[in-house]
Amino acid sequence: MGLVTGEEILRLRKSFALLERHHELAALVFYQQLFQIDPTLRPMFRGDIEGQAVKLMNLLRTALALLETPDQLVPVLESLGARHVGYGVQAAHYATVREALVRMLKGVLGDQLTPEMFSAWEGLYEVVQQTMLQGAAQAASAEVG
Ligand code: HEM
Questions:
Q1: Is CB count within 10 Å lower at the N or C end of the chain?
Q2: What is the pTM for the complete model shown?
């Protein structure tokens, strides 16, 4: 979790506050971009997209709140990653989700997204992805063993 520095955390919180002013739009743009990049992902989402969008934003809010307390954040992300195996998510899908997130941030925040904020988001995504995949791998080895 040490990948995200104190300064980056401030930038992430600032940009998330900007994003939350348009949270419904942000979440919908994210899924619209995701399904445009890879339409085969659409059937994996069985619930309604508005509800899913709210869950995604809530998770990001939790992650931002817990960045300074990795002992609390890591188990949340590991079990989220393990549940994603059950949704049929594969490691390669994380790059697609990253691309959709990048497009959403640029589209919704526009000029408000500074290069420093952008690289802080990239750092955050990297940490979230790694920790979720770690949880997925642990779940897989627990099943075998
Ligand atoms: C930063 C990475 C990600 C985050 C923070 C995230 C967050 C979430 C959250 C909070 C949920 C709600 C259910 C739960 O808590 O278990 C969820 C469900 C789901 N996510 Fe993700 N996710 C991520 C990556 C991915 C990726 C890479 C895929 C692949 C396409 C994906 C596909 C799904 C699917 C299919 C569901 C279940 C939807 C349903 O049952 O309708 N997620 N995700």
A1: C
A2: 0.93
